[in-house]
Every structure is written in structure tokens, then in C-alpha cells.
Design a protein that fits this description.
single chain; alpha+beta; 5 helices; 170 residues; Jelly Rolls; six-stranded antiparallel beta sheet; three-stranded antiparallel beta sheet; globular; 11 strands
């Protein structure tokens, strides 16, 4: 079996996103029998990765590779450092951000697999120069069982001293 079937080397895998928040696709459900998917998120200093949101179908485990990552899990706020793992349960409102002044990276394991399709669809649209409009976003959210609380953004930014990620260049 060739190396490419057994090992994903540093820097390999599709990358999507901007300069201070992105996603590196590492393992998809077709490679894991649907059991899980794995992505890496680099997060710039003090950057909010997402508004409060919840997943209907998946649990997520975030392994902090470097830096400090803040997470709101329901009403609880935690800060995790390199080597820590944060568990985000399905149906629980949560979000995450870089809580420090240096870059952070997390390895996210999502189980069962499938949610990586949400990220891939958004990446495909952005690569094609399209910003997903309301109708497209509503369909994506329904398909992947995802809910956002967009009204949470201003409070999260203020409370934790954060900024929004820089959009990817077109």
C-alpha cells in the first residue's frame, strides 16, 4: 500500500479559509467507514472561530495542539492549553476561540462522520467565488443539523476581547 494511503504528512490535505481561521481536511468519513472525521483548525490570536452553535448529529472532541483555546459549553466557559481535550456534545450550544496572543491550533475529531461535508461545501462555494446566500445557508444548516445563534457574536467579542476572522481572499 502506498504511503499516501497510510499517512497524511504535515502540510498535506486540502486547506480552506482565511489568514487567521481555517480548516485543514485530514480524514473524511469515506476513509473511516463513517465512524469519524478529523480536521485541523488554525486560529489567529484572539479570533472567534464561530458564533454559538449546536450540532444535531455529532459530538466533537477538540485536542489543543498549540496555544490556548477558549470554549463556551452551554453556560460554562473553559480555557484549554496544549495537550488538553475539550468535549462538545451534540445538541449543546457551544463555541470556541483563540484565548491567547499567539496562534492556536486544534485537531477536531467529529463523530459520526459527515459534518465535514458542511465545511467542504462552504469551501467549494468560496473557491468558486460565491458567498453562500440565505437560501443556500438555510439548506446547508438543515442538511447538516446545524443551528447558529448569530446574536451571540457581539457579546462573545466583547466579553472575551475577541475579533472576527479575516475573510478569505477571493
Amino acid at each position: 500500500m502506498p504511503d499516501s494511503d497510510r499517512i497524511l504528512r504535515a502540510g498535506e490535505g486540502r486547506y480552506a479559509g482565511g489568514p487567521d481561521f481555517g480548516i485543514r481536511f485530514m480524514l473524511s468519513g469515506d476513509r473511516t467507514g463513517g465512524g469519524f472525521s478529523m480536521v485541523e483548525h488554525p486560529i489567529g490570536p484572539r479570533v472567534l472561530a464561530a458564533p454559538l452553535h449546536r450540532h444535531r448529529y455529532e459530538d466533537e472532541w477538540s485536542f489543543v495542539l498549540e496555544g490556548e483555546v477558549g470554549c463556551q459549553l452551554g453556560d460554562d466557559v473553559v480555557v484549554a492549553g496544549a495537550g488538553d481535550v475539550v468535549f462538545k456534545r451534540r445538541d449543546e450550544w457551544h463555541t470556541f476561540w483563540n484565548a491567547g496572543d499567539r496562534p492556536a491550533r486544534i485537531l477536531e475529531i467529529i463523530s459520526p462522520a459527515g459534518f465535514e461535508g458542511y465545511f467542504a461545501t462552504q469551501a467549494d462555494l468560496l473557491d468558486a467565488g460565491h458567498t453562500p446566500g440565505p437560501g443556500v445557508m438555510e439548506a446547508l444548516l438543515e442538511r447538516y443539523g446545524l443551528e447558529f445563534d448569530l446574536e451571540s457574536i457581539p457579546g462573545l467579542l466583547e466579553r472575551h476581547g475577541l475579533v472576527l476572522p479575516t475573510p478569505p481572499e477571493a
